[in-house]
Design brief:
Elements lengths: L1 H39 L7 H6 L12 E7 L5 E7 L6 E5 L10 H9 L3 E5 L17 H15 L8 E6 L1 H8 L9 E5 L5 H13 L2 H4 L1 H12 L1 H4 L3 H6 L5 E6 L24 E6 L14 H20 L6 H9 L3 H4 L4 H15 L1
Parallel strand pairs: 3-4, 3-5, 5-6, 6-7, 7-8
Antiparallel strand pairs: 1-2, 2-4
Helix pairs in contact: 1-8, 4-5
């Protein structure tokens, strides 16, 4: 009898030890998932270099006056919005990519305004002029975009206009996912759009920990689900497009390394999309086939690359920090208008696609 009890005790101890090991393993991996995830979504601010390269709105405000306004998201944080143009064809909401702000898309915004559209842009949670200690996570932009659509719906004048969405990268994901909402959306264009939070999270995490990222998948999913819930965490842009008949233009560069055409992009799932009104626009030409450069002219891309090289030389020359006078002289030499010349063909394609959707 004593021997039986001893066996049972050993078995029980073994079970307890195993459970403790599993618990410790889970806690460690959840902690690692939090560290990795949070590092991807800090608060974003413009550097001096960014400000020098980007178009300064103050220099174009006479030609493109804008209305500044605020609206609140699901976290009750105030987001900064901007409204351009006086056209009545419809209103286009531009959803920015991760780490980008509304003013990063001024060339696209003003180009669409020139074609007779109202254009609404905004800074996402934890970015630039919007509130938030950090950018929360991948799915947060979907919530922010829905808040922008709520603002439009509540505005007497704007609510009368057909609503269109243009999203880049994370914004492309949000624009597609908005099709699952109750808002009346007349058309969507995704540029280098990401397909799902987990696909992008795993692809990005691989840059930190290699293929070990796959072992951490359950923990990254669990952590993301704690923030946004399983329904939103599991949302897929391609599924949202597929379940809708809304005209959707999916734009992709063949050399995109952020949302590659064969892995975590919406385009990678094109064979699964059943929407009869979905169309594809692929950029494969040199200097206009990446994640962001397809939005700019080739001259702008080449000029921006030259600026980047000059800046790298300065950082190597002054490893302890570029002297303020040297930096100011370099920034003053940058022609931001030249660096941001838009890809007019892309803007015209979006304009035509949306106009056709109105017919």
């Amino acid at each position: 009898m004593a021997e039986i009890k001893t066996r049972k005790q050993k078995l029980l101890r073994g079970i307890v030890v195993t459970l403790v090991i599993i618990l410790i393993f889970a806690i460690i991996n959840l902690a690692a998932a939090k560290i990795i995830y949070d590092s991807l979504f800090p608060r974003f601010v413009y550097s001096d270099y960014d400000l020098a390269v980007n178009i300064d709105y103050e220099e174009i405000k006479e030609d493109y006056p804008r209305k500044e306004f605020g609206f609140f998201n699901n976290l009750d944080l105030r987001l900064q919005g901007y409204l351009y143009g006086e056209g009545n064809k419809g209103i286009i909401v531009v959803a920015p990519g991760l780490s980008s702000g509304a003013d990063d898309y001024l060339s696209l915004t003003t180009g669409l305004a020139d074609m007779g559209w109202r254009v609404l842009t905004f800074d996402t949670t934890g970015s630039f002029m919007s509130e938030g200690d950090d950018s929360v996570g991948f799915c947060q932009e979907t919530e922010d975009l829905l808040a922008a659509l709520t603002y439009i719906e509540s505005d007497r004048e704007l609510s009368r206009l057909p609503v269109f969405l243009v999203g880049h990268s994370r914004g492309g994901y949000a624009a597609a996912c908005a099709l699952e909402s109750d808002f009346d959306i007349s058309g969507v264009a995704t540029i280098s759009g990401a397909n799902s939070p987990m696909e992008v999270t795993i692809d990005t995490s691989k840059n930190y920990v290699g293929n070990f990222a796959y072992a951490g998948y359950p923990f990254l999913y669990a952590y993301q689900s704690l923030i946004f819930g399983t329904e939103m965490t599991g949302m897929s842009a391609s599924e949202a497009i597929s379940q809708s008949d809304c005209p959707t233009l999916i734009i992709q560069g063949t050399e995109d390394t952020v949302t590659p055409p064969d892995t975590c992009s919406i385009y990678a799932h094109r064979d699964e999309i059943e929407n009869p009104n979905a169309e594809y626009l692929v950029y494969s030409e040199e200097y206009q086939s990446g994640h962001s450069n397809l939005m700019y002219s080739k001259d702008a891309v080449l000029y921006a690359q030259d600026i980047d090289r000059q800046y790298e030389i300065l950082t190597e020359e002054y490893p302890d920090g570029i002297p303020e006078a040297v930096a100011d002289e370099f920034y003053a030499s940058i022609d931001s208008e030249k660096a941001n010349q838009p890809n007019l063909q892309l803007i015209e394609k979006i304009n035509t696609f949306f106009e056709d959707a109105l017919k």
